[in-house]
Amino acid sequence: MGHCLGKSSIKLERPVYILSSAGVVGTKEGQGPLGMLFDLVGKDDLFGAENWEEAESVLQKEALRIALGKQGIRPEEVRFLFAGDLLGQSIASSFGLGDFQIPFFGIYGACSTCGEALTLGAMTIDGGYAELAACVTSSHFASAEREFRFPLEYGNQRPLSASWTVTGSGAFLLGKRGEGGARAKIMGMTVGKIVDYGIKDSMNMGACMAPAAAFTIERHFEDWERGPEDYDRIVTGDLGQVGQMALLELLQKKGIDLKEKHMDCGLEIYDTKEQDCHAGGSGCGCCAATLSAYLLKQLEEGNWKRILFLPTGALLSKTSFNEGKTVPAICHGVVLERV
């Protein structure tokens, strides 16, 4: 079994393998820089469903179906399923994945849910409690707008600091053995903590989440006795342009320079100049779909050998926002290496 490092990290005794993955996205994402890399791009953002919430469930269902199919794995062979989304009571996951009948853990970490799912899945396998586990996350622009802001019919104006919730889902099949092909291996993780800088602007998620990312990155380097030079890329989830600037400045004050190594999934999935997404992409599906389509591909092809994957999440709700609460955030780090 793995062992604890420092205050917040776990180093796995043996790697846990990402055997396969799938990324399913909407039309806007399919038109972006990574469009050709996704497994499935919807013809429209309803995906044949009657409403936006059902459409998000279809995203998860298709992503998991494709990921399992790539390895020829039947649902009944998977021991546990870790999944979550942005909707109340995680309804996209429960309605989207129920038909698979896999023992289910519903989890919530806002847009950091992909990192949380991979962490819990890898720990479960490393601990000997499963041979195979699946991790799924999703988001949908229209369902998220209705959940957190205004329905699309309202036609509200969005400030330049706002990000665009990705319509997408990522599914990952984790296994103890990597024989026969695996996309990458998970070597360990650094679990984030709730960080709250007192920001109340729900239209500036990047500023809310940057302090949490800065904390986890600094703690990771302390726990693992590593620095930026030990990674080919350090990839945050969905900070966008505003959050990226804040993160780099916060870390610079700590003596950590990430300018040459940092990437953000929210800035990779869209062309921010041409696609009118303002600060960049966000949502549970942002980093999950980007990880499956692009980041793992770079590891497979040998362009990178090791990355630190850091999904970030803003832990707010309509209730907390309407009650005048701040927007706390969290970030989980996962060490991924080439097989």
Overview of the structural elements:
With 339 residues, the chain is an alpha/beta fold. The protein folds into 2 domains: 16-175, Stage V sporulation protein AD (Peroxisomal Thiolase, Chain A, domain 1, 3-Layer(aba) Sandwich); 184-337, Peroxisomal Thiolase, Chain A, domain 1, CATH 3.40.47.40. It contains 10 helices and 16 strands. The mean pLDDT is 92.
Please give the structural blueprint:
Elements: E1 3-5, E2 9-25, H1 27-30, E3 40-41, H2 52-71, E4 80-84, H3 91-97, E5 104-106, H4 113-126, E6 132-139, H5 141-148, E7 164-165, E8 168-175, E9 184-190, H6 205-224, E10 233-236, H7 240-253, E11 262-264, H8 265-268, E12 281-282, H9 284-300, E13 306-310, E14 312-314, H10 318-322, E15 329-331, E16 333-337
Parallel strand pairs: 2-3, 4-5, 4-6, 7-12, 10-11, 10-13
Antiparallel strand pairs: 1-2, 2-8, 2-9, 6-8, 9-16, 13-16, 14-15
Overall residue-averaged pLDDT value: 92
In the CATH hierarchy, what is the architecture of the largest domain at level 2?
3-Layer(aba) Sandwich
Termini separation (Å)?
20 Å
Envelope shape: globular
Q: H/E series, N to C? A: EEHEHEHEHEHEEEHEHEHEHEEHEE
- Main sheet, how many strands, which sense, barrel? 12 strands, mixed
Helix content: 25-40%
Give the CATH superfamily of the largest domain. Answer: Stage V sporulation protein AD
Number of domains: 2
Class inferred from helices and paired strands: alpha/beta
